[in-house]
Write a structure and sequence with these properties.
alpha/beta; binds nicotinamide-adenine-dinucleotide; elongated; about 290 residues; three-stranded antiparallel β-sheet; Rossmann fold; 9 helices
Length: about 290
């Protein structure tokens, strides 16, 4: 029997402008993990039956689902000119204060990659699955917007969206900007513009996080797809489901620190595994 520690605790405090913000903090809780049923690319009849019967499906996605669209994952992101930089050193408020030009240019490069990318069969399969199920919630850590582009409707973007831009001092949204200055300035307050994503050390959107936790607690099944399960609090969501006896499924070609906790592990690329799953649910056949 393996015991894992779950550290999801959402402290509710008043934030700027009187709004509520949620900070992930540590709450140690023991979760019993002793039921690894399957680690394979083979999709069993048992899993298909489970997924077909589920009325409230929750999917958590990470950078891996967009890898087959040509967008590097966080661990792969440092290629070419950017190889010398650590993403965790670029995606913080302190990094932006230190070198706003460098951070803006890194995101401009990533924004360009995202704008050139198209949803892959994994994104499209999830959008198709949503249309088959009354309660389907897609929680993504991705900032690329490809789930919505694929047609998914109920999407919670926990880490924001790289296509949107806001100002550093007051979060004023910016629809357009001039590239004459790098970074450009906010037309309302003059502070630098930055991507509308959640950087390390920043709070997640309170409403989105609340919706995500509620969906996880009420789920019939949860799938964790293409995430390394390292970034909190998203990484705790599968264990929160597990602690409520919700079956959990991982889809990832590589093992993660949480792999042994999952009831089903499909060790393959999302762009192959998801269309195969959705086709079998859709066909209503158990082969
Ligand atoms: P990560 O880079 O830490 O991990 C990616 C995971 O995807 C790995 O476990 C890898 O084995 C797996 N993977 C790779 N190819 C896959 C495939 N074809 N199918 C399924 N899985 C595959 O990413 P993370 O866990 O999402 O966390 C890092 C942070 O990076 C997140 O906060 C996210 O917002 C950010 N990020 C987002 C994007 C994006 O929006 N596309 C890209 C890079 C990083």
């Amino acid at each position: 029997m393996l015991l894992l520690l779950l550290n999801l605790y959402l402290a509710n405090e008043p934030g700027r402008n009187g709004s509520q913000v949620y900070y992930p903090t540590i709450l140690w809780r023991f979760v019993q993990v002793d039921t690894l049923f399957e680690t394979t690319m083979h999709i069993s009849d048992e899993l298909i039956q489970l997924l077909r019967q589920a009325r409230r499906v929750v999917v958590l996605t990470g950078a891996g689902i967009s890898a087959e669209s040509g967008i590097p994952t966080f661990r792969q992101a440092q290629t070419g000119l950017w190889a010398q930089y650590d993403p965790e050193e670029l995606a913080t408020r302190a990094a932006f204060r230190r070198n706003p030009r460098l951070v803006w240019e890194w995101y401009a490069w990533r924004r360009q990659l995202v704008q050139q990318a198209a949803p892959n069969p994994g994104h499209l399969a999830l959008a198709q699955w949503e249309r088959l199920v009354p309660g389907f919630t897609l929680i993504t850590q991705n900032v690329d917007g490809l789930h919505r582009q694929a047609g998914s409707q109920r999407v919670i973007e926990l880490h924001g969206n790289i296509r949107r831009v806001k100002c550093f001092d007051h979060d004023h949204p910016a629809e357009s900007w001039s590239e004459a200055e790098t970074p450009p300035r906010c037309v309302q307050c003059g502070s630098f513009l930055r991507p509308d994503v959640v950087w390390f050390g920043e709070s997640l959107p309170a409403v989105g996080l609340h919706q995500a936790v509620t969906a996880v607690r009420n789920a019939d099944v949860l799938l964790s797809i293409g995430t390394s399960a390292l970034v909190q609090p998203a990484a705790s969501l599968p264990l929160e489901a597990k602690s409520r006896r919700v079956p959990i499924v991982e889809i990832n070609p590589q093992p993660t620190p949480l792999t042994s906790a999952f009831n089903f592990v499909l060790a393959g690329p999302a762009g192959e595994v998801l269309p195969a799953i959705v086709q079998r649910i859709h066909l209503n056949t158990v082969s």
